[in-house]
Amino acid sequence: MIYLDNNATxxxxxxxxxxxxxxxxxxxxxxxxLYAPAEEVHRHIEEARASIARxxxxxxxxxxxxxxxxxxxxxxxxxxxxxxxxxxxxxxRRHIITTAVEHPAVLEVVRRLRTLGYDVTxxxxxxxxxxxxxxxxxxxxxxETLIVSIMHANNETGVIFPVSELARIxxxxxxxxxxxTDATQSMTKLPIDLAGEMKNVDLLSFSGxxxxxxxxxxxxxxxxxxxxRPFLYxxxxxxxxxxxxxxxxxxxxxAKAVELAAATHSEDAQRxxxxxxxLEKRLVExxxxxxxxxxxxxxxxxxxxVACHAVEGESLLMSLAEAGICASSGSACxxxxxxxxxxxxxxxxxxxAIHGNLRFSLSRYTTEEQIDTVAEVFPxxxxxxxxxxxxxxxHQQRPDFSSWQSExxxxxxxxxxxxxx
Length: 421
Ligand code: PLP
Prior knowledge:
Number of domains: 2
Strand order of the largest sheet: 2-8-7-6-5-3-4
Number of strands: 14
Bound molecules: pyridoxal-5'-phosphate
Strand content: 5-15%
CATH topology of the largest domain: Aspartate Aminotransferase, domain 2
Number of helices: 13
Shape: globular
Order of helices and strands: EHHEHEHEHEHEEEHEEHEEEHHEHHH
Oligomer: single chain
CATH class of the largest domain: Alpha Beta
């Protein structure tokens, strides 16, 4: 099997499993208990916290363990709202800024907050998936904006947002505005220095399973002094900031995964970039009408998002799976109708290509041989699916791309408008 879906989740590193095992067997004690073996477990958690804090330039007390990035994002946003930042007139701040391309673990939270009376600005992106800093500056409302939540790197396209710069602008505009970033995809893949470049970021979310730790553990960095109410009540754990007995083995595993990544970060990034670029080049050369989504922007080293005109992502995925290749598509097939990715829609990817979208995401375990196999197999799959497409065949007779594309646009618009079921 060739696994190129590492932005969805990653395999657990063998060293991580090894580090976790003692805490799944003999070291099962509740870290809050007051006898020596339990205190020993507690000590290991605090070591894990200190190690993760060191890796991101934080203080140990600024690292809150959670169950996943979704929980971290919910804690950041609901926690900030609950803490109820006030403006200079003593009234609650009710404005939130985010982007149209956030993960649903942010977008759905802010949309929920909108129904509760918060005013939410969703910043648009351009065709390459980039934000316009001028839009951001215009969106900031001194004395009114409560929190900004802008992701570090996009999970679908890998496009990187300049969060350090946006956080700096935020604090220059109004020191009291809280700046949150969802770093779920960038953690361990891009440098994160909360004492340096990112010193204006107040809250930062991530999740272990994106970097070779298991699913079910994450963290939220909370800069000292940031007003934040707990999201989970009912226990004194995590300094009273999150109730619930700590997931000891997974916390230990996540710290190990961070350490492993720190040791090989720059080599891994270089290798993944070279392999990703190799794949991209070969696909662009061998597949006509292929779009590289986010290709014009600064991207994470491991992500390649392509869109092929006149084929469906689901058919591509199924054919790839038959060839033993795991990738993913931005569109979800629900009740027979295709719901295109909100990220690609925000990027105004033409509807003729948005449905033929596919994401390949690499890891440090991806090999050159695997990339070459995909580069060999994928163009053949696209060609054979296009042979089955009446639109593609029509195009072959009449190779005028723009009129062909506008016909396809109309077809897709009609399909979209058709009732489901
Ligand atoms: N944020 C981003 C950018 C993601 O890519 C994901 C998962 O894909 C999440 C949040 C949610 O992560 P988790 O599954 O750990 O809740």
